[in-house]
Amino acid sequence: MSAAPKVRLGALETLWFQVGGTVCNLACTHCFVSCSPTNHTHELMSLDEVRPYLEEGAALGVKEYYFTGGEPFLNPDMEAILALVVREYGPATVLTNGLLLDAARCLRLRAIADEGEYSLDLRVSLDGADAESNDRVRGSGAFTRATAGIRNLAAVGLNPVVTATEVYDENGSPQGKERFFALLLSLGIDKPRLKLLPVFRIGAEAERAGAYESWQRLGENDGDELGWDHLQCSSSRMVTDQGVWVCPILVNEPAARMGPALADALGPASLHHPACWTCHVYGVSCRT
Amino acid sequence: MIAAAERARLVAHRGLATWGERQVPLAEFRAAAAAEGVALPPAERDAARCALLARPADDTPVEGPFARIAVCGGIYSNRQALAACLDDAARRGGEAVYCLGDLGGFGPHPEACWPLLLAGHGAAGGPVRCVQGNYEQSLASLREDCNCGYADPRDNHFARLSYGYTARSCSAAFKAWMGALPPRRRVRLTGAGGERELLLVHGSPRRVNEFLFASTTPTPLLAMLCEQERCGGFLCTHTGLPWVRTLPSGEVIANVGVLGRPANDGDPRVRYALVSIGENGVEVEIVRLAYDRQGLAAEMRAERLPEEFVATIESGWWTTCLEVLPAREREASRF
């Protein structure tokens, strides 16, 4: 096994915030960061904690800002953060499980989107196009509540990207996608948007479906054909309440922390973790 | 009724952190995390930021000076629109015509644009001054795909049809000519408000297939790119949607749109830009250009190009390659 390859940060284009920490109102069986109502590995981030990183990021030419968790809308500052970002810094995308998208919040998000200089986008996670398959992974009642949230978004003209993992093989098949499209049309979304992501076999998912095999690691030669510039770590970093991490996937690995400030985290990233194999082999883009 | 296993997951982390697949006391995880990484001294942080942002000096020759130029984006084999643009630019006093790349694409008979590009416009203009787009790079290097940069399979489906047709329809000589085009140009404009040097690129100054949409391109990023490139602004295309922005520091950035298809607003006219120096600096006028779109549509149908492409030409609304649009631009889109 050769030494882990290193990836140069070409530009800091994408800045992620673990703004919901690892605290979530669900405990999905495939969550690669094992989020749950009691998981405080990373805590919520306040507007005041986020702001200095926005300033530092803007000076470094960040192009887009992503907000995830845990569930970002458990964070009482979430809407204020989104409003600030789309007004002054750049486009914002928030990744949510959709459970807290009541009608009043959707109206407020509509106002934030309208008043912003830049685009506000939402991604809502579903893992099945029906309650039975979705809730087997995401928990009892998740489907009903998330689809109600999507309906509320549609009612104010916000069109979320539904994000599904390939926790079921069929999700990525043409028939599987059609089922998601049909669901979204039935919820009042007339231009259905869908993003599929592979599962990362870490965190809760390792427990559910098994961890990586020993051969699922990257070596220098694996970059011969494509190089590494397609990897997210060549153009992004993740901020949590505990500092700056190499990517959104590895926040539960202390070794993936790069330092307290963005300037400390501009050096190369090491592809030592088996999850890096998934990013490379599946061409994962965390972007919308 | 919540199953026991689900209930156990909900409460599993009381007082514990997740470290990989293990659960450890919160304090243990935080101490381990705090011990990783580096906290650089202020001077080294400044050096790290400078190193990330540094770009080598650009030796691209500076063309001009001109008082007014016409700049078009992707032609997408729309010969009729190119002809109309050359006439319009000459009539409006454009001293030179620039094209920012993506000569082929949705339309028919891509090579039919070549003589028009070589002949250029009007009496003084000379050949159209082209910048290489991702299409030219891909066609010249015999790549299997257009490298447009789409991520969604629905976008890539139509991108493949479009690129496959174009690749089959271009001669080796045309592809070789595309391969010799410069990836960027610089032009000096002069006028009442002084002189400005603009950079001309396809996608962005840093990447041929970077999408710079109005709603997803932060002003601080544009300022950084202008500083890196030491230019008074830049002109780009690639997205198909035109916009103009003046930075607080005075640089002007414009996406000039494309000649190849309308700008997804229900107006079937296509767009190009006239750029000059006014009293307040660089002025960009986005021109709406009527052309023989019925003639284009007839040729597209005769070539059996997808009806979706023809519908866009006729209606002014995009029917394909929509998933790449940011939320705001998608909301304004019919489909």
List the helices and strands and how they pair.
The complex is a heterodimer of chains A (288) and B (335).
Chain A: E1 6-7, E2 14-17, H1 47-59, E3 64-67, H2 78-89, E4 92-96, H3 103-115, E5 120-125, H4 131-138, H5 142-155, E6 161-165, H6 174-186, E7 193-197, H7 204-209, E8 236-240, E9 243-245, E10 257-259, E11 269-270, H8 274-282
Parallel strand pairs in A: 2-3, 2-8, 3-4, 4-5, 5-6, 6-7
Antiparallel strand pairs in A: 1-11, 8-9, 9-10
Chain B: H1 4-11, E1 16-19, E2 22-25, H2 26-35, H3 42-53, E3 62-66, E4 68-72, H4 79-91, E5 96-99, H5 113-119, E6 129-130, H6 134-140, H7 153-169, H8 172-179, E7 185-191, E8 194-200, H9 219-229, E9 233-236, E10 243-246, E11 252-255, E12 270-278, E13 281-289, H10 293-302, H11 307-315, H12 327-331
Parallel strand pairs in B: 3-7, 4-5, 5-6, 8-9, 9-11
Antiparallel strand pairs in B: 1-2, 4-12, 7-8, 10-11, 12-13
Helix pairs in contact in B: 6-8, 10-11
Question: What tags apply to this protein structure?
Answer:
heterodimer; A: alpha/beta; nine-stranded mixed β-sheet; two-stranded antiparallel ribbon; B: alpha/beta; six-stranded mixed β-sheet; five-stranded mixed β-sheet; 12 helices; globular
Descriptive account of the structure:
The complex is a heterodimer of chains A (288) and B (335). Chain A is an alpha/beta fold and 288 residues long. Helix content of chain A is 31%, strand content 15%. Chain A has helices spanning 47-59, 78-89, 103-115, 131-138, 142-155, 174-186, 204-209, 274-282; strands spanning 6-7, 14-17, 64-67, 92-96, 120-125, 161-165, 193-197, 236-240, 243-245, 257-259, 269-270. In chain A, the strands form two sheets. In chain A, strands 7-6-5-4-3-2-8-9-10 form a nine-stranded mixed sheet. In chain A, strand 4, helix 3 (103-115) and strand 5 form a beta-alpha-beta unit. In chain A, helix 2 (78-89) runs parallel beside helix 3 (103-115). Chain A is globular. Chain A starts with 5 loop residues before the first strand and ends in a 6-residue tail after the last helix. Chain B is of the alpha/beta class. In chain B, 35% of the residues lie in helices and 20% in strands. Chain B has helices at residues 4-11, 26-35, 42-53, 79-91, 113-119, 134-140, 153-169, 172-179, 219-229, 293-302, 307-315, 327-331; strands at 16-19, 22-25, 62-66, 68-72, 96-99, 129-130, 185-191, 194-200, 233-236, 243-246, 252-255, 270-278, 281-289. In chain B, the strands form three sheets. A six-stranded mixed sheet of chain B has the order 3-7-8-9-11-10, covered by helices on one side. In chain B, strands 6-5-4-12-13 form a five-stranded mixed sheet. In chain B, helix 6 (134-140) packs across helix 8 and helix 10 (293-302) runs antiparallel to helix 11 (307-315). The mean pLDDT of chain B is 96. Chains A and B meet through strand 5, helix 7 and strand 10 of A and helix 1, strand 1, helix 2, helix 3 and helix 9 of B.
